[in-house]
Amino acid sequence: MSRLNGVWQRLRGISRRQWALGAFAVVLGFAVLMGIIYAWDYTNSPPFCGTTCHTMPPEYNAWQRSPHARVNCVECHIGRDIITTSVTRKAGDLMHVVRMSSGRYTFPLYATEMLPAREACERCHWPEKFAEDRSIAIKRFESDEKNTPITTYLLMKTGGGTQREGRGFGIHWHIENRIDFIATDELKQSIPWIQVTDSAGNQTTYYDIENPLTPDEIKRAGKHRMDCIDCHNRVSHTFRNPDQALDQALALKRVDASIPFIKKKAVEALTGTYRNFDDANKAIDTLDGYYAKTYTDYYKGHTTEVKAAVDYLKTLYQSLVFPSQDLSWTTHPDNLGHKDWPGCFRCHDGKHFTQDNKQAIRIECNICHTLPEVSTPGGAAPVISVVRADEPESHRTTTWLAEHRTVFNGTCQACHDTNNAGGKDNTSFCSNSACHGTQWKFAGLNAPGLAKVFAPPVAPKASPNVPPKPVPHPIGGSPDCQRCHGKDSKVRPYPANHVGRSNDVCLACHKPTVPEATPTSNGAKTVVAGPPPTPHDTAGRTQCLGCHGSGAAGVPQIPQFHKDYGFTNNNCLTCHKSSVVQTTPTASPAPSATPTKATGGPPNIPKSHVGRTGCLQCHVQGLLGAPKYPANHAGRTEETCKGCHPGP
């Protein structure tokens, strides 16, 4: 009680002025504290990071379009931690202010001191959780007149779950296991040394046989522990290239895909070198004049679409290139993938071997995703296997992809369709355009050092005593070898030393081994290898594509690769011969009689029907005794009728 009285007496002794000063100090302290909190919060905000500093607009622009557009910059660059640690880390970033104020920086800028993913990404993401395969569809457009849409389907094998679920395969294997590597450049694009440590502590070291490091260089080099950012390095700041940007714009209908060659012309405009945005806009504006002059008729009816595309391209360019900072899609590598940048091929390039050259870092596509399946308009729906097929023992070696080029033979056909092997017409397993149709410039399968381990296939030298290769298909009655085997052919071009040789010369050396189908008197077909024979007579029926290339219902359609190679009606009759014997009509048929037709072919139109049109009006329902057309003719048009049934 005495203590309380003492406190009360001291409080009574405080003057009003002292009370006022104390109150003012409390208010001032509170205001300062609130100001500090506000300043801390504001300087941690994305608008401050992206707009206050004049060097950050490109990154801010890309961040707004990224999957992390709702994640604050500081959560990755400073991390989530206690306030004292965050303050210390932020204080270290004051050097950025010093460098900017003193001009001690150069463009383009790169982030070189990021937190390890274990202290940033993994605060939200959990790589040890197993993830099932995920289906993705990559939409792109060809650079042809029709801007043909192409869709590539994949199942991504994200995987993971080693410690938690005892699985451990797929893409996330890389961060569940300890992987250390040495990079010889600041952006980590060249990785000549990798070391993998398994759960038992066993280490396996791989060396780039093209650019090996010396023991002394390995000892002195700094080793980096692999984490999420080594692959997902552009997850928040992606700088798209013009091709990717146009594919997205066409898919989202920001640019009208009906504009002829718009993909090709737009990419050309966006990839030009310009001093500033004004120069870029002037170059893009020329597209309007190009279409007005080159596609006059189209432009008259679609002026609005063309002008809208031009306006959108101007806006798009400003998100791809930042001239004042020397920054574009060419300056910042994207390690997620392996086409435009080395990405996965920094390690999985086929030329990273153990010291004894017996084991390699695998390069097969199906380690991280299924084989890509390509779908084109009008083509067959893609089929993706969701079950891992049994593989031969040879396929399980770590060097299989480097070896398979040297052991390709007829045994492959037991599991794979090898038609047009190495091509890109999507007619078979071995002609997948998403594999062979792409120039994989970062894969090391053609490295000279690799040839010392696995010698590339060598064609045997020609011998005068060895007869020329036979023709493995019928040649028809009017052969045109140059169509498929000419110098610029997409099918199987002849060697350079055959330039100038005619069809006669071809057939003088290369003899067909497959006979033509020999028709019998009753019109039955002889089954032979090679192009299937035509099941009806071809007299007067030379416009094959009118039925077989028009999408007519019930009519076999030509394969996609026939369209890709531009085969014409004449090419059809070169390979596909009629198996039907034509009979000779009587000398003087009765006026009302139906002329004798070729056995087995479509019936002819009677002479009494001269000038009649509207076949479908009578023959769909069989009106007035007219023959009713078969069910498999549903969907055929008037032109289809006349294309198959000759008549007066």
Give a structural overview.
The model is unreliable at 519-529 and 584-599 (pLDDT under 50). This protein has helices spanning 2-12, 16-43, 46-52, 57-64, 73-77, 83-92, 94-102, 162-165, 173-176, 215-220, 242-251, 262-270, 277-294, 296-301, 303-320, 400-403, 448-453, 481-485, 503-509, 545-548, 560-564, 569-575, 615-619, 638-644, and strands at 134-141, 149-156, 178-182, 193-197, 203-208, 224-225, 352-353, 373-375. Among the domains are: 16-123, Di-heme elbow motif domain (Multiheme cytochrome fold); 242-325, no CATH class; 532-582 and 597-648, no CATH class. By secondary structure, it is α+β, with helices and mostly antiparallel strands.
Topology of this protein?
Blueprint: H1 2-12, H2 16-43, H3 46-52, H4 57-64, H5 73-77, H6 83-92, H7 94-102, E1 134-141, E2 149-156, H8 162-165, H9 173-176, E3 178-182, E4 193-197, E5 203-208, H10 215-220, E6 224-225, H11 242-251, H12 262-270, H13 277-294, H14 296-301, H15 303-320, E7 352-353, E8 373-375, H16 400-403, H17 448-453, H18 481-485, H19 503-509, H20 545-548, H21 560-564, H22 569-575, H23 615-619, H24 638-644
Antiparallel strand pairs: 1-2, 2-8, 3-4, 3-6, 4-5, 5-7
